[in-house]
Specification:
There is one protein chain. The protein is about 70% helix and about 0% strand. By secondary structure, it is mostly helical. The model has no long low-confidence stretch (mean pLDDT about 90).
Amino acid sequence: MPIKDTDFLTATMVVRALERTLFNKERTARLCEARSDDEALRLLAECGYGTMQALTAEGLEEALKMSRAGLYEMLSKHLQGDYAVMLDVFRVLTDYHNVKALIKGGENQQLLDLGRVPVKELIVQHNEYAFARLPGALGDAARGARETLARTEDPQAADFQLDTSCLREMLALAEKSDSGFLLGYVRLYIDVYNLRSLVRAQRIGKGADFLRLILAPGGNAPLSRLAAAQQSGTPIEELFSSLAQAAEAGSLAARGEGSLTEFEKLCDNALITYARAARKIAFGEAPLIGYLLEREAEMTMLRTVIGGRLGGVPAEQIKERLRAAYG
């Protein structure tokens, strides 16, 4: 499906206008330092989160839910027909999140809308064990994870099955989209997942067999080298050239010499930096994808900031927890 950049001229103009309302470092600092809840609410309203009557965790989640619904509705208008597959790359993440929640906790878990499968329909199919009706590889992955959990009583093992299936689906959809920007992001996303998995495995002393179960194909770092890293003694930082800073921090964390928090922050920073590169692209699908990624990162940031404020965490400590785009 060859992409015509000119198909996105209007959409790019819409996104460029919306980018002006995104939280930047200055706005984020103001939110962290706001002297009252009312001041924080005014700033949130200025940036499009104006549905809260009071600053509460529940109110924030409802505001984020409405904002995310509006985001996907807007993007759906511009990503129609063959281009809809680009948005499906991100809907897949929601589908797998919901399946994980249902398998491990049932209907009482927090399920998210805006996946390919409506939440109500997914609950019915889960209760009826009707996984064959789920799209893509989701059905097989859900059935396999549920059987694994029943057999092993190990939620983590079920998660690994779902995670790797999710990443394979994301990669297949990104390849189908013909978007180089989207494909580049998904490959980087897989690299980040594999890097985190490798660091965790080394910290707990797991070997190559374990890595082969949890690593996902399709990233920039060759899967064969990653799986053999434990035996070959190859330093982590030599495996992930596209994640130099994060890989160096991960290498230290794997040896117990560095901060896991700093490592996780640098992983997220790499993804945010990639998304922001879309701002330099004049028009096309990349600005839309970049805007979606920035908004998703912004919502994560807002949970950190508001959660910190509500918990009485000092502003400077909240800032230290934030990723590069907001700290």
